[in-house]
Amino acid sequence: MPAGVRLCSGSMDPKAPEDPLDTVELRHLRGFLAVADELSFTHAAAALGIGQPALTRTVRALEEAVGTRLLDRTTRHVELTEAGRCLRDELAPLLTRLDGALRAPGAARPALRLGFTSMLPEACGPLTTAFKAATGAVVRLVRRDEPLAGLTSGACDVAVVRGDLPPGAEVRGRVLLREPRVAAVARGSGALAGRRVLDWAELAAHPLVVNTVTGTTRPELWPADRRPRLACTADNFDEWLEAVAAGHGIGVAPEPVARRHSHPGLRYLRLKNAPPVTVHLAVPARDPHPLAERYLRTATG
């Protein structure tokens, strides 16, 4: 390749005279190689998927940039000049290596890390199946006992978040679904354990066990003048289960999560008039993974 040929253009000094080689782009080099291989502008243009006049202009621009004729053309045939053969012989292996380098980052099957806390909603099953069928990507599940399931720490690319997104968090999300709440009570909690249904307002009279990290129910969900007393807090779902089973207070959880986590010391009671738990799919507000964006689009159909 002539010593001055560059694959990108631009001068740091706006007053410097423009070097003709600064105008050379990959499309010029690929166009020339296609003609050099086919020895036909018609066939080369078809192989590149462009029009013959456009290819002719592309090769002519390259010849003007390098300052020499690369092809001898007649109405019947196309031949390489000596300069054209030298340029072809140098370019061909270079562009092959460049193509390989550009493909290397995506050579393996792309992967998306899907973060969650206590459990994935059932809706994520068909959603993930549709996403994998559309993209060919691998979905890796990542559980983190963090408010955003590892999204802000970089442990995942897209997160399933139950409850409101934390104010001020550098994330954006879409609502996936809403889940009903149930009450959890210790089996030894007397008359309360014998109930089958509770009203949301009734819970204000009982101490509340709160999972402060990944939980969805806090005293602030009740009116300010009629709220449950905070009995104790837990840092994860397992601690929350044990605290409720030990009789420290009642608990409230999304119904699908409670159904998945049975405990011999607990009973789950249906709640009337309880606000549902909003489940979001969340991605970083800045520079999200391209596959995370695709996952969100798949979720919204």
What attributes does this structure have?
single chain; 301 residues; alpha/beta; Arc Repressor Mutant, subunit A; D-Maltodextrin-Binding Protein, domain 2; 3 domains; 5-stranded mixed sheet; 4-stranded mixed sheet; 8 helices; 13 strands; rod-shaped
| CATH architecture field of the largest domain | 3-Layer(aba) Sandwich
Number of strands: 13
How many individual helices? 8
Straight-line distance between termini: 49 Å
How are the strands of the largest sheet arranged?
Answer: 4-3-5-13-6
Main structural class: alpha/beta
Shape from CA axes? rod-shaped
Average the pLDDT over all residues and give the rounded result. 88
SSE succession: HHHEEHEHEEEEEEEHEHEEH
CATH superfamily of the largest domain: Periplasmic binding protein-like II
CATH class of the largest domain, anyone? Alpha Beta
CATH fold type of the largest domain: D-Maltodextrin-Binding Protein, domain 2
Q: Which stretches of 5+ consecutive residues score pLDDT under 50?
A: 1-13
Helix percent band: 25-40%
The tally of domains stands at 3
Rg for CA atoms: 32 Å
Estimate what percentage of residues fall within beta strands.
15-25%
The main β sheet shows up as: 5 strands, mixed
Q: What is the compact description of this entry?
A:
The protein has 301 residues and is an alpha/beta fold. The chain has 8 helices and 13 strands. Helix 2 packs across helix 3 (52-66).
Explain what the structure shows.
With 301 residues, the chain is α/β, with parallel strands linked by helices. It has three domains: 20-105, Winged helix-like DNA-binding domain superfamily/Winged helix DNA-binding domain (Arc Repressor Mutant, subunit A, Orthogonal Bundle); 111-177 and 279-299, 3-Layer(aba) Sandwich (D-Maltodextrin-Binding Protein, domain 2); 181-275, Periplasmic binding protein-like II (D-Maltodextrin-Binding Protein, domain 2). The protein contains eight helices and 13 strands. The chain has helices at 26-38, 41-48, 52-66, 82-103, 124-135, 237-245, 255-260, 290-299; strands at residues 71-73, 78-80, 111-116, 138-143, 158-162, 171-179, 181-186, 197-199, 208-211, 230-234, 251-254, 266-272, 277-284. The strands form four sheets. Strands 4-3-5-13-6 form a five-stranded mixed beta sheet, covered by helices on one side. Helix 5 (124-135) links the parallel strand 3 and strand 4. Helix 1 (26-38) crosses helix 4 (82-103). The chain is rod-shaped. It starts with 25 loop residues before the first helix and ends with a helix. 28% of the residues are buried.
